């Protein structure tokens, strides 16, 4: 019999090996909350970790998309009850750093001298144990725990912690306005949510770019007016044609590669904004002509997934008010015991997978 | 005797040849104004034209920084009087394009289908005859003519049409706030005005970067708290030291080269903004680490010199209210007859030249 | 036989008398366009004029919501063709005033010294002849004429010049964000469009307030999640109940009365914005408690209908992309000959009228 | 002998009675810090409390402007050391409420269901014991304690917690831009800092309004270009004259009365912003004409003093960089033992008092 103090967790052992193993259930500090995970999922970033492309410490529990139930509250945590259903954002800011105090929660560096650290708000499955486990310790619980509205299922809110928050931020950081023309490069889970976000903010012409038929189809359901297959001709020329030569107000990059970044830049109208969500693996090149030699009044904006309970509350409101249904993104389901199979499927992008749901 | 209908003008003949020649004084259309130039100057962009690096039509009159007196008003122009002293911005928008109507005046494309064109608002000395002449025809005069407040000399307002408008926009597009730390790369005329702009907007730590002693000295007068000589050690390391490891809130690039662009990116704090003013001549590289792989919540913003009479009015107010004195930037004076000498000095950056004043 | 140089027009004769009469077809100046009206409508403001509550000159043609065909272009107007179907905004800015050049087009004062004038952009049916006529002279045509996209009928775009532009601006000036809770006071044509605008911008809880059953019903179709009948109990208490005691992020006032203004203020959450669209007839009172004694970080923002061709282009894009259908707002149709009957019906708000379509 | 566990404090006993008495030195919870006060001051709000106009609990220690030394840190507080010199803002947000997480720190309601509460971030001398004492317990210390830069005296930073933060916010919330014309109504300590803030943000015409000669004189030193004595003629007419009939871009109200609020509204240009800092005691009236019947594209914005350590860091940077010296505002000095005398002088505004420094 497994002792009560141990739990199962998906652990990074070494590049190309994430395995299910046992770990002690963590102790709960005064500001923490222990959450019993009921559903979680795998992110593209986890695959980067798996492949050794993004370094984390060996022995770390992976995962940053938790849905669960409060098991135990720290002694100083108020405003919650044990047994409450909650989510926490992939990014879990402290609330007290200088970064947080100027609204830059994702770049939180609570332990640094000046309070800013690149990606410092990303802790789960990066600098502390993550959500692909039976239990998750949530630090700064009063900043990060967001109660799930009655009537919403785990799968309905499963995209909120990362995919939907990141995707929407592509449209938000692009300052999409009513009547805008927006192109979204790549219609994976984040790109699809960027498409949905642009739609929610009032864009009237939304152009999704991908080549996988299933993704192109779901892109239309999420709000794309046009879907361009980049394997069939020149995507820049096609978007210029669709916009009657004008270009787009906002281009959202949701893949993280030179080709998409460059195409996004080339289709911007003068004065337009490239809103970048991709996680890049290489240096980028800005072609002189695509950049109007620096004189085009253009913006390039990058955004890391916004977190914190207020963000989560708003995203769950989007679901509860039926503005958007993200459950079609969940294409496969696994038990936590099968997490290695889930990684196998997801990392090879087999079987039309978009997102998997994992339930301990 | 030179006929009354002819005027002298500095004309682009071919690469490396701008010469003073005669041209007809232009006819005045209903919306135009003819301005008798009293003072003008040469811009770095004009040197790009001279060298053939930026193509313009042969026979074009160069120059986009006019100070003068209204000689003749078009039949439909109201609100001005002949004999009035005026300036016009380097960028002369139409006021009626879609670009203008959404506040993007510099990217004005009045003749295009959708009203946006990269740099389309820049007409003088680019797509129409410019200001280095005895007379300048100003199109859309009611949009572009700004009366000079009483008591200001030509040289006091000579920087308004371009240098000061562009330099200030570096701080403005960077959204400099009270208490910000700002670095300005290169302390040529535009960088100096960016330094002054950051100061005017409330930055409390301003770091100028250059290597020319005279420019470093004037940088302090324009508002820099620190001046870093990039030839004496690692400028990135020095700025990180000056900011106690935090980096800057806003980095302004005012040179147009890979080294400065890259250094500006490297010293940004997470969430910081690179405000780019430089005119680049080559593709740019964004190093992966300097960009936090796209996850640093950073912005890269480019701005073309804002124009139009309201912008000019505000800039002249800065001068009139003694918030800033740009006359120290005028280091040399020439008559229009000597314009070829002026180009020679300015294009070779001899004798500590910052800006020249040219008077027909 | 009516001479070719005369046209029919609805003319303000004196308070309580707007009559159909004949007027000369206006001459076309170099920057003007003559538009043959195909459809127009009556606005609540016209009723204020009719009643003598808003003063205009006797003999003025009323109306500021034109849909038509270009009959004749001024000699300096480029980019259009005669015979083209167009609309123009209720507000017709000049494009060249200082107000326009700083993005404040509706407060355009082209003839004033400094270029700002309250409501100065509103010319049709206010300071120049309006649209309830066979022909309309559009000044500054290149700023104001917006071609109608193929396939859209007159009635589909009839709300764009004023109702939809004004209503949407209520949501836009309130800076509605994804996940916001918004209340809209009064669900007349403008309030209904404010409701639709809040929906388009991503509000997830939208509360419409009215008491007329037909309006309450159409409010739901336009995007309201809840509709509160203010005649049945305390509207403030009800909205606080619906928002779980939190209040709303944005309250839009679309009636112009003390009761609605005050209720809108009372339901704001701390930090929330009151976006006011109403045309008030009396001084307003800000109750001390509703205003947190000035310490609630609240905003009160007023907006006059945005105009200009770019605005019109964007609004027609909303229609063309099927984001919104405003034709249900057109409840009655009249020929121009029957304009007096139309005023009679509309001014008495009989027969469930929302908007009338008038066709010469 | 006074026991070590007791301290002196200025306590609200009943309306018109604030007395110096003894209280236990508070216990330090895990997130708290105990600060030994070295300098503090009296605010106009404290006088409202004294007079019974703003209700607080009897027995409360008054004061919200602390300068001191960390005496003891809570067990969970990191990043500080005992003995460190610090200030805390008058507003001390929790960092974890929904209000804080959307940047609305002053309206923090950590104990409320939705995390927003009017003025909820104001705790010192309002809902918890304040700073006019030997010791102050600072809650959420990691959010609120800001180390004082080396070389700055207590009096140099004494205005940061409230006066300077509030005054600057008047300019910030008004979005003052380079070239703006700004009027500031009342040149008391907050109005003077609003004047300085407008200057720091680039306003080129700043008009201070007051009638006390000493204040009018210091207004010029803080940045006013013109000072209008409202007792000598019509202040609205005079400001319209000074602005050549145009009105101001931003009017800052820093008194809290109908006359100043109304005058501020009347002098706004169309599209201008009234930034209100005053604490009002009565309902306000918005005159119909001053409000352009709601059609002037105007904004009325209220701001409660921004707090938190990042705000304090920035304000102290303003002092340290010599952009502003607020020590001329300190006109009188008292020991804590003399606090009742200090209240007597300050509440009667005798002897040209601006601010008093009180040292335990």
Automatic annotation (TrEMBL), chains A, B, C, D:
Keywords: Metal-binding, Oxidoreductase, Zinc. Residues 15-354 form the Enoyl reductase (ER) domain. InterPro entries: ADH-like_C (IPR013149), ADH-like_N (IPR013154), ADH_Zn_CS (IPR002328), ER (IPR020843), GroES-like_sf (IPR011032), NAD(P)-bd_dom_sf (IPR036291). It holds the Pfam family ADH_N. Its cofactor is Zn(2+). GO terms for molecular function: oxidoreductase activity, acting on the CH-OH group of donors, NAD or NADP as acceptor; zinc ion binding. Coiled coil: none annotated. Belongs to the zinc-containing alcohol dehydrogenase family. PANTHER family: NADP-DEPENDENT ISOPROPANOL DEHYDROGENASE (PTHR42813:SF4), ZINC-TYPE ALCOHOL DEHYDROGENASE-LIKE (PTHR42813). This is NAD-and glutathione-dependent formaldehyde dehydrogenase. It comes from Aurantimonas manganoxydans (strain ATCC BAA-1229 / DSM 21871 / SI85-9A1). The lineage of its organism: Bacteria, Pseudomonadati, Pseudomonadota, Alphaproteobacteria, Hyphomicrobiales.
């Amino acid at each position: 019999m497994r002792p009560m103090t141990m739990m199962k967790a998906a652990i990074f052992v070494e590049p190309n090996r994430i395995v299910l193993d046992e770990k002690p259930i963590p102790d709960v500090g005064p500001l923490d909350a222990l959450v019993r995970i009921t559903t979680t999922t795998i992110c593209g970033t986890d695959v980067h970790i798996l492949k050794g492309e993004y370094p984390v410490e060996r022995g770390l529990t992976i995962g940053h998309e938790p849905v669960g139930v409060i098991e135990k509250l720290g002694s100083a945590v108020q405003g919650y009850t044990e047994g409450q259903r909650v989510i926490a954002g992939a990014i879990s800011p402290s609330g007290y750093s200088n970064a947080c105090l100027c609204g830059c929660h994702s770049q939180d560096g609570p332990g640094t001298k000046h309070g800013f650290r690149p990606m410092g708000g990303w802790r789960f499955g990066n600098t502390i144990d993550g959500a692909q486990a039976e239990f998750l310790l949530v630090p700064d619980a009063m900043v990060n725990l967001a109660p799930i509205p009655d009537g919403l299922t785990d799968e309905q809110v499963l995209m909120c912690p990362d995919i939907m928050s990141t995707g929407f931020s592509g449209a938000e950081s692009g300052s999409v306005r009513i009547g805008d023309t927006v192109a979204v490069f790549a219609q994976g889970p984040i790109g699809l949510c960027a498409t949905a976000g642009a739609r929610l903010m009032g864009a009237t012409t939304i152009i999704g770019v991908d080549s996988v038929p299933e993704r192109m189809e779901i892109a239309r359901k999420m709000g794309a007016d046009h879907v361009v297959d980049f394997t069939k001709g020149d995507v820049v020329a096609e978007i210029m044609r669709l916009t009657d030569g004008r270009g787009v107000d906002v281009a959202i990059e949701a893949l993280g590669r030179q080709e998409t970044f460059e195409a996004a830049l080339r289709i911007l109208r003068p004065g337009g904004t490239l809103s970048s969500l991709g996680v890049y693996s290489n240096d980028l090149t800005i072609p002189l002509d695509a950049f109007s030699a620096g004189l085009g009044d253009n913006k390039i904006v990058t955004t890391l997934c916004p977190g914190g309970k207020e963000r989560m509350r708003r995203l769950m409101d989007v679901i509860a008010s039926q503005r958007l249904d993200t459950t079609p993104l969940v294409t496969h389901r696994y038990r936590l015991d099968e997490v290695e199979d889930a990684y196998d499927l997801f990392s090879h992008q087999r079987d039309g997978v978009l997102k998997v749901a994992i339930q301990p």
